[in-house]
Amino acid sequence: MILIRLLIISICVLYIIKSLARIFLPMLFQGLVNKAQQQQNQQQYREQQRPNGSIRVDYMPPAQKKSVPDSEGEFIDYEELK
């Protein structure tokens, strides 16, 4: 008796969840699609505001100094003669 009651309740709960998912998931996805479209439109608008031929640099790494430690000294290329 308890097993049959449990099965009936679980089937009803799953049916309710399925019905609610059919209602609310399309609304959720439509909201995500609208948000992505707005971001895309804003990005295109910003790109149109820049004059043609202009370049925008987002990141410029810091300049690295190429220095030789004092312990290594200078290196001079030479050929060994035999």
Task: Name its key features.
mainly alpha; 82 residues; 59% helix
Structural class: mainly alpha
Indicate the proportion of strand residues. under 5%
Largest sheet: none
The best one-word shape is: elongated
The helix content, as a percent range, equals: 55-70%
> Uncertain spans, ≥5 residues at pLDDT below 50?
none
Number of alpha- plus pi-helical segments: 1
What is the succession of H and E elements?
A: H
How many β strands by DSSP? 0
Question: What is the mean pLDDT?
Answer: 83
Radius of gyration: 34 Å
Q: Tell me the span between the first and last alpha carbons.
A: 103 Å
Region (Disordered): 40-82
Biased composition (Acidic residues): 71-82
Protein name: DUF4834 family protein
Organism: Mucilaginibacter straminoryzae
